Amino acid sequence: xxxxxxxKTERPIxxxxxxxxxxxxxxxxxxxxxxxxxxxxxxxxxxxxxxxxILDHLWGREPAESELPNKLRESKKDLEGNFPSLEVKxxxxxxxxxxxxxxxxxxxxxxxxxxxxxxxxxxxxxxNSMPVNILSIIVNKYGLKQxxxxxxxxxxxMFSDNRVLVGAHPLNLYLYLEGVGYKSLDHMTKxxxxxxxVVKDKGFEINGSMFKRVxxxxxxxxxxxxxxxxxxxxxxxxxxxxxxxxxxxxxxxxSISEIGQLSxxxxxIEMAGIRGKISNAPIFDSAK
Length: 288
Ligand SMILES: [Zn+2]
Ligand SMILES: [Zn+2]
Fold this sequence. Notes:
With about 290 residues, the protein is of the alpha/beta class. The protein has one domain (about 5, about 15-285): TIM Barrel (Alpha-Beta Barrel). It is about 40% helix and about 15% strand. It contains eleven helices and nine strands. The protein has helices spanning about 5, 35-45, 70-80, 130-140, 145-160, 170-180, 185-190, 210-215, 220-240, 265-270, 280-285, and strands at about 20-25, 50-60, 85-95, 110-115, 120, 125, 165, 205, 245-250. The strands form two sheets. It has a seven-stranded parallel sheet with strand order 1-2-3-4-7-8-9. Strands 5-6 form a two-stranded antiparallel ribbon.
C-alpha cells in the first residue's frame, strides 16, 4: 500500500466497485483546464480506484480531435509506471448522430464508447450545459414523441454498431426532459425493450452525473420528479439486466473533484437489484 494513500482519508466513493469508467481530461474542451492526465491519475490513485477509463469527446467538430488518441497514449506511457495499482484504459466518447462520427479513430483506442449527444435534425445538443429553456422551445416546436422516437432509434443504432463496445449515458435525454416537466418516462418504460435485442455483449453505462443533474441543476419541476426518474430508470435497468453484457459505473468527471463520485450509481444499482452485472475485467481485457 502506498503511504500516500494511507495518509488520505479518501475512499472509492462507490461501495460496489473500485472503478470509474468515464473521466474526461483537459483534452475535452468542456472539462477543467487543470485535468491533465497526470492530475487525473493522481486523484484516481488517491481515491483508491483500481481501474479508470479516460473518455474525451469526439464530436467530429474539431480538427484537433485527430491528435487526441496519440496525445493520450503518449502521456499514459510516461505516467503509467507511477501508478502500478491503477489500470488505465483509453477510450473516446464518440458522438452518435445518425452515424458514428470520427469512425476513422476507432482503432486508435482500447475500445469505443459512444453516446447520442446531438440530434441535429431537432437542433438538440445534449450536454450538461444544455439550457432548459431552449429545450422547452424545441419540444414545443417538434413534439415530445417525435424527439424521443428519434433519440431511441439512434440509441438502438448505436448499440447495434459493431464498433461500439460501451454506450455512454444511455437514455439520458429522457431524464433531462422529465426534469423540465415533460412526461417522457412513459415513452422510456414503454419502449425500452427495443434495447434488449441489441445490448448483448455490450456495456451499458450507469452515469451518475445525469442523476445529479436532474437532482441539482434543473428548474423547479426537478425535485418533484427526481424520485420518479430514478425509479423509472431503475426498472429499465432491472429489465435490461438479463439481456445486457455488463453495466459500467461512471462519474463523467469534468473536474478533478468529480472523479470517483459514484454515489448515485450505487443508489440506482441497489434500486434495480443489478449488483451481479457490474462491469468486470475480462470483458474489458478482451476488448483489445
Ligand atoms: Zn457525453
Ligand atoms: Zn462525458
